[in-house]
Specification:
The chain is built from six helices and 14 strands. The chain is of the alpha+beta class. It starts with a strand and ends with a helix. Bound molecules: thymidine-5'-phosphate (TMP) and aspartic acid. The site of thymidine-5'-phosphate has 11 residues, from helix 2, strand 12 and strand 14.
């Protein structure tokens, strides 16, 4: 397969068809824009499976995603998209950089979800921007942003509902969108404990990449527990 691109957590290859790519999920883990590096054993397998289940659930609810087919336990066949260079973050509860930036204690409830957009540019640490930047810099049009926000809020509702049934609180998450060959904006990349903050609803325990970022231990165990709960819930919907 012809290699196209390597990111921090995935490798992308050309598919047989020019409108398709093959995405391989690695075990590599990074945080703070590559300052902290490590491996989370079997993360690629766990995250690709969680993404597959969540994307299947979202598709059933009418959300378009790039996932076409599962090739093997670490590899997905996906629509080739041109990624809109925005990291779209949703916060339901204050945590992480949101808490730090605004001086609001982690775990503080919010009156309504906050959507943030960050310009995807590693050299600049993916800076937080607003709609005016995105439009003026030509990263997205007003119409693109309206659609992205509409889809994002729907995805948030659906994921919150799903994770609640897994006894997990969806604190916040990051998603990315791309444009396919038909010009449709579809959900791309992954949804996993790498890209979501998930807290156990009974104990408050962190079950996501913060265990790696903050050296909390039991990283693999937390990812596996999320996979088990998501698999169980996925089987029922
Ligand atoms: P933050 O609080 O560090 O801004 O993160 C918000 C959410 O976005 C959190 O669920 C983790 C996720 N995230 C990513 O998926 N990739 C990233 O590069 C960053 C910074 C955050
Ligand atoms: N994904 C980012 C990195 O690789 C940041 C993070 O997830 O904390 O550094």
């Amino acid at each position: 397969m012809e290699f196209l691109y390597e990111g921090k957590a995935k490798r992308v290859f050309k598919g047989e068809n020019e409108n398709e790519v093959v995405i391989f999920y690695k075990d590599d883990a990074t945080a703070f824009n590559n300052l902290k590096k490590g491996t989370i054993e079997n993360k690629g397998i766990v995250n690709s499976k969680i993404t597959e289940i969540l994307y299947g659930y979202l598709e059933k609810a009418g959300i378009k995603t790039h996932l076409l087919k599962v090739i093997d336990e670490r590899t997905h066949l996906c629509q080739r998209v041109s990624i809109i260079p925005l990291e779209v973050i949703v916060r339901n509860i204050m945590a992480g950089s949101g808490s730090k930036r605004l001086g609001i204690e982690e775990g503080s409830p919010l009156n309504s979800p906050i959507i943030e957009i960050c310009y995807k540019k590693d050299e600049l640490n993916d800076p937080l921007i607003n709609d005016y930047h995105a439009i003026s810099l030509g990263l997205a049009t007003r119409e693109d942003l309206d659609e992205i926000y509409r889809e994002t809020l729907k995805i948030n509702e659906l994921l919150q509902e799903f994770f609640k049934k897994c006894n997990l609180t969806l604190v916040d998450f990051k998603i990315e969108f791309g444009k396919n060959s038909k010009g449709e904006i579809i959900l791309a990349d992954e949804i996993s404990p790498d890209t979501c903050r998930l807290w156990d609803m009974s104990t408050g325990q962190k079950m996501d990449k913060d265990r790696f970022r903050r050296d909390l231990g039991n990283v693999e165990e937390a990812y596996l527990a999320v996979l088990q709960r998501v698999t169980k819930e996925g089987d029922q919907c």
